[in-house]
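Hi there, hope your week has been kind to you so far. Thanks so much in advance, here it is.
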Amino acid sequence: MTVAALSAEVWNGGFRQKGKDVTSRNKQTVERYLDGFRTGNRAQILSCLTDDITWTVFGAYRVTGKDGYAEHITEPGFSLPPVLTVVRLVEEGDTVMAELTGDVRSDAGEAMRLAMAEVFVMRDGLICERRAFVIPLQENDYR
């Protein structure tokens, strides 16, 4: 295969080859990670992380390592998987940024709507740092 045939046109954070979109390895990891949250699959979530992961939820907590991370996958009172919708997923270098909307229900049935910005720093195709900005919404003020 020639160099020209191997070259790809950067398009929307991924690549376009011969009219087909190809998602990067880092974006695939983030999508697999988010799917793990959507389905409540702890093993899938943890498989997307480096052993020395750092997770910061601004205004709430910071944990380091998979064990600490695992303790916060499901918070007390929220055992049901969230409904997460990706608004956009953008990648630059070793970083993937996700804009998300979320709907969660407490174990008591109380609904909570969220707007989120998530920064995923990647190393060798795994998430080594996650920075989360989570904003509870009092009204449906997102699209």
